[in-house]
């Protein structure tokens, strides 16, 4: 492709990106006007629970942070008339509530805008960091820049004020440190995944398999520091209640915003097929066991160079696929296996770079856009099948690829 054609192609990519964001902003503006103002829009997002959790820590009884009644009271302060069944539980560690507490010194709608700007800046860093890995391929790199700029799960996470974008940045930063053999720093960075503790299970497993004790030591140090902060905030009684809240999540069905049927993971798929039956539980556990055993085999030894991209991509895909809770906005983390998987595959199948790029970019969008719609009308989550298929396909390529 000539330089002139490259500039024209790049221009049209940004026209499409700009058009997409224009449509999304128009839709958001319509909702704001329809609901009677920005405040009414914000209280309908997940940000409501984070803001209320922060406010409870600053002004309320901190030890009761994780009790339903207390959370209902503080969320009702922002949304008068809210029923207890409509509470969105603040289910993140106490140290997260303390960070959100800094935003509560502003009215909720202003705090939401500040949080949105911060998350947008984080996503810009994620896009820049990921696309910088696609070296020496200017046109293909711009494809990924355009794709990531309008990735639907990240956009939804941004509108909801969720932590998903920050979690993507944490996983990416930790992965880059492990790639550079900076294990202690990688472990400390990984401790921030305790924003959603369930995400730590598989990373701890594979690091233990590789006997990366410095990484595990850094993780333990980071978790220890965050644990001390959390203890100071809510006390031992508050931490016990936090553990109880996490266990109660498992039993909730269409309650407090938890609905297994709409989760984009293997648990959600088996629930759609078989509900709460014993067969559904067995099938779910069998899928977890199979993925975990394969992941242990993949991570049995340290890899360097491009094979590390494949190794880490399989880890992130597994975290999504077998995790206990994966909502639509959590699929923002697919940005990492999409780009790093492409970097790995394109190196092992050089003659098929263009084909791989088109398949991954097309799948990237089709899955993320169509999956939520299909999940409403049919007992299927396309994202779950796509991630599972990507796992199998990439595993086959990884198994046949030569070690660096």
Give a written overview of the molecule.
The protein is mostly helical and 404 residues long. It is globular, with a radius of gyration of 21 Å. The protein contains 18 helices and no strands. 72% of the residues lie in helices and 0% in strands. The protein has one domain.
Structural class determined from secondary elements: mainly alpha
Q: What are the low-pLDDT stretches, counting only 5+ consecutive residues below 50?
A: 1-6
Number of domains: 1
Largest sheet features? none
How would you sum up the global shape?
Answer: globular
Distance between the termini: 31 Å
Strand content: under 5%
Radius of gyration, taken over Cα atoms and rounded to an integer in Å: 21 Å
Q: How many H/I helical runs? A: 18
Oligomer: single chain
What's the SSE pattern?
HHHHHHHHHHHHHHHHHH
Helix content: over 70%
β-strand number: 0
Q: Which helices and strands appear, and what pairs or packs with what?
A:
Blueprint: H1 3-35, H2 38-42, H3 47-59, H4 68-78, H5 94-101, H6 108-131, H7 138-149, H8 152-160, H9 164-179, H10 183-190, H11 201-209, H12 213-249, H13 266-274, H14 278-298, H15 306-322, H16 335-348, H17 353-377, H18 382-400
Helix pairs in contact: 1-7, 3-4, 3-5, 6-7, 6-9, 7-17, 9-10, 10-12, 13-14, 14-15, 15-16, 15-18, 16-17
């Amino acid at each position: 492709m000539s330089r002139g054609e490259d500039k024209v192609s790049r221009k049209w990519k940004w026209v499409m990106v700009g058009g997409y964001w224009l449509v999304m902003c128009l839709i958001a503006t319509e909702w704001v006007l329809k609901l009677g103002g920005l405040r009414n829009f914000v209280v309908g997002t997940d940000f409501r629970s984070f803001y209320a959790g922060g406010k409870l820590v600053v002004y309320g009884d901190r030890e009761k942070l994780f009790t339903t009644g207390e959370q209902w009271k503080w969320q009702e302060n922002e949304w008068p008339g809210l029923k207890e069944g409509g509470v969105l539980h603040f289910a993140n560690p106490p140290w997260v509530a303390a960070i959100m507490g800094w935003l509560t010194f502003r009215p909720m709608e202003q705090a939401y805008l500040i949080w949105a700007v911060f998350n947008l800046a984080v996503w810009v860093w994620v896009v820049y960091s990921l696309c910088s890995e696609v070296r020496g391929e200017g046109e293909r790199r711009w494809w990924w820049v355009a794709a990531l700029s309008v990735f639907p799960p990240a956009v939804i996470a941004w509108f909801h004020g969720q932590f998903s974008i920050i979690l993507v940045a944490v996983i990416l930063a930790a992965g880059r440190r492990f790639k550079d053999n900076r294990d202690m720093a990688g472990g400390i960075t990984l401790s921030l995944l305790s924003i959603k503790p369930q995400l730590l299970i598989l990373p701890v497993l594979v690091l233990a398999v590789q006997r990366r004790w410095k990484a595990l030591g850094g993780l333990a140090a980071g978790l220890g520091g965050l644990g001390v902060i959390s203890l100071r905030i809510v006390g031992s009684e508050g931490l016990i209640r936090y553990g109880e809240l996490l266990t109660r999540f498992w039993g909730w069905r269409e309650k407090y915003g938890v609905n297994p049927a709409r989760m984009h993971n293997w648990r959600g798929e088996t629930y759609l097929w078989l509900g709460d039956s014993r067969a559904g539980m067995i099938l779910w556990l069998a899928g977890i066991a199979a993925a975990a055993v394969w992941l242990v085999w993949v991570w049995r030894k340290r890899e360097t160079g491009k094979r590390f991209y494949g190794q880490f991509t399989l880890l992130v895909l597994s975290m999504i696929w077998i995790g206990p809770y994966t909502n639509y906005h959590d699929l923002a983390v697919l940005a990492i296996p999409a780009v790093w998987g492409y970097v790995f595959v394109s190196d092992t199948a050089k003659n098929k770079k263009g084909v791989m790029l088109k398949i991954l970019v097309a799948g990237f969008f089709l899955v993320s856009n169509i999956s939520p719609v299909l999940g409403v009308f049919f007992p299927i989550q396309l994202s779950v099948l796509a991630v599972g298929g990507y796992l199998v396909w990439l595993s086959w390529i990884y198994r046949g690829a030569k070690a660096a």
